[in-house]
Amino acid sequence: MKELLHKLLFEDVDIPSMPEIATKILAALEDKHSSVHKIANLVLKDQSLTANILRIANTPYYQTGKHVTKINDAIMSLGMHNLIPLISIIMLRQQLMSKTIDNELLEHSCKVSIISSLLATEVDIKKEEALIAGLLHDVGILIIFFNAPSTYNALKLKVQTDKIAFVQAENEILGGDHCHIGSLLAKKWNFPPIYDYVIKHHHDTDVSEGKLTYEDKLCYLVRVADHIVFEAGIGIGQSYEKNLPRLLSVLRIGKETYDSAVGKIQEIDCIA
């Protein structure tokens, strides 16, 4: 555990390299002559990735139009700028699932993603960005598992024994948390800054008193969704959110809307 803490403090965490296909797509996106067709052809080379992107684009709580059957249409629906973080988290999860990562951790992120997209229109946030922010918010926990499975298991045991939030166990045992680690990955893998912000700040306990930035609103939205999913008993540990009433107030999410999201949690077909 001390070794991981040292890595955490000195920003020397073993972050896996960006998946090869994501690297190729990043290069294509930076090419001003590139097209959706060219990028779609890169995605189509990986059958599992193609299936996951199509499934996400057709998630009932996200999709607003007709059923998407072509990868070109899925890319346009989700947004070109979202491809790198989306593909990266899909590939990272596939890699870690071969190491028997907890399904409840993946299910938690998935359902936070769906609840975030469900509430997005209420707070003037783009649905696709809410969806991806929810998928990414706990990516730092995956990195802890990637680096030190035994430490991850010790954290999980403490969470279950003491009935506390995972981030509390991290700070007690490691002196740092997955928000910082996830932010390192976001920077290394060239995620758009809004996702780095959500990953880094989704367990902050303060709520802005002034005018909210778009990044604040997206982060607060994920905090609300995170709380809803934990309260439904999905995830490792308990919710760490300490300012839910204030969050709902500044986001202008009313009781009826909040209760509706809570009521839908069990019927969500997870995309993880």
Key structural traits:
272 residues, mainly alpha, Hypothetical protein af1432, 16 helices, 65% helix
What does this entry show, briefly?
With 272 residues, the chain is mainly alpha-helical. The protein is built from 16 helices and no strands. Helix 8 (127-136) packs across helix 14 (214-231) and helix 12 (178-188) runs antiparallel to helix 13 (193-201).
Structure characterization notes:
With 272 residues, the chain is mainly α. It has a single domain (2-267), classed as Hypothetical protein af1432 (Orthogonal Bundle), CATH 1.10.3210. The protein is 65% helix and 0% strand. The protein is built from 16 helices and no strands. It has helices at residues 2-9, 20-30, 36-44, 47-57, 71-78, 83-97, 103-120, 127-136, 139-147, 149-162, 166-173, 178-188, 193-201, 214-231, 244-251, 255-264. Helix 13 crosses helix 14. The model has no long low-confidence stretch (mean pLDDT 85).
Give the secondary structure arrangement, pairings included:
Elements: H1 2-9, H2 20-30, H3 36-44, H4 47-57, H5 71-78, H6 83-97, H7 103-120, H8 127-136, H9 139-147, H10 149-162, H11 166-173, H12 178-188, H13 193-201, H14 214-231, H15 244-251, H16 255-264
Helix pairs in contact: 2-3, 2-6, 3-5, 4-5, 6-9, 7-8, 7-14, 8-13, 8-14, 9-10, 9-12, 10-11, 12-13, 13-14, 14-15
Distance between the termini: 29 Å
Number of strands: 0
Number of domains: 1
Order of helices and strands: HHHHHHHHHHHHHHHH
CATH topology: Hypothetical protein af1432
Largest sheet: none
CATH C-level name: Mainly Alpha
Query: What is the helix content?
Result: 55-70%
Sheet-strand content, in percent, reads under 5%
